[in-house]
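Fold sample X.
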Amino acid sequence: MLDLVMCGGARAVVAADAAPRRYRHAEHVLGLHIAGAGSCRLGDEVVAVGGPYLALLPAGELDENGMSGAIDSRWCLFRSRLVAGDGGQAGLLWPGAAVRRPHARRLAPAEVRLARERMVRMAALHARPAVADRLAAAALLLELLALWASPAPGAGGADAVEAFRARIEERADDPACSLAALARAGGRHPDGLSRRFTAAYGLSPVEYRIRLRLTRARELLQTSALRVAEAARVVGFANPAHFSRLFRRHFGCRPSDLARLDG
């Protein structure tokens, strides 16, 4: 469903009077803008850059970059039937579901860190020839597309839920940080916020954090020399046996199977 073609990034200083750079890509583009001022055109949509954002640009649509100053960005080109666009908006089509929204989704600070980490790891994995690495890179691309498709901070009444999700992402590896504390950090009652979170994402906060930890553990086992117990501890599991049971239930294989691939 996903064919990752190329990953890249740029850090440069662009003069304010520089001419806009125009492109039309044969593949879809997922771009992470971290720094830079000005505006850009994505398809028929003009985006005034007011901070970091994650943008999805369907293949063939205009990509006009008029930003200046200190530019920091990362991007990838990919092919997929999941992506659709009409110039005015971008869309993701999933069996039985679809989302259409403006090309650029603004990011909260925790999301910027998460997206940057995923982009860097994805590029490293894509550069490797092994099938397992290429599949892991595609999984990270799906995770970034899911971030793009999720409600943006401050969108409608979803800002509290989105902020809660960002805090879970940021502190997922800390076993001493409770979900109740993360909810109260945003001035919300844990029970009410949990219900809203489940309604928005289809998973309870507990399930979401477990899946996040398991996904990060799988990445570590595939890309590092960590042993299973070490990877479990890094992502927030105190009990390796409990971690292994959850991992096998979620991914259909034992974590030791992945660890042996690098051995």
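Fold sample Y, listed below.
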Amino acid sequence: MFGHTLFRVDQKGQTEQTRILAYSINFAADVPAGAGLAYPIRGIFGSYKGYFSTIPYYLNVQKYRDIENRDIWEYRLNLTETQLRRFLMHAWELGNAYFDYFFFKENCSYHILALLDYADPSLHLTDEFLLWTVPADTVRLIVSKPGLYRTLPIALPAVPSSSASENSYRLKNGAWPIESRKISRSSTRRCSLD
């Protein structure tokens, strides 16, 4: 319904062929197995703990694209070395901390934006979301910030499109799938909104 947002950090010198081996910074709710009907109710009211994790990007691709059949969209960001360092250091500091996870407000997208706000305090990205934070809206916000967004998105579709022109049409007309967005992080300047 909403999608998911995570941040991929590529190493210097990493190529498009090796980016799958990069690490990703993720924020997600710790939901016990078999949560059943309690899952949406507890998520709406912030009854789950949300944690940051750092795992290989290919595990996220496997989960979201290969298992959950979602499209993945990668967006390259312009972050300075100092901004990237601040982002990574703050994510590291938050490694064992938890935050109440609210599906509609303080979710994966909100907390990735909070890390970007820490990296560059002049951005005020989280200030734009008062009632809810939807991954597609966070992508639109990042793309609207002058100098933050660098290139056209890269699509990693779950199911190959029927034609190359379909993906081209989606990009030109802004008809991107809402299921999955990613702000990807390449060569120290790429972030991935899933």
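Sample Y note: The chain has one domain: 6-193.
Also: Residues 10 and 188 are 6 Å apart (CA to CA).
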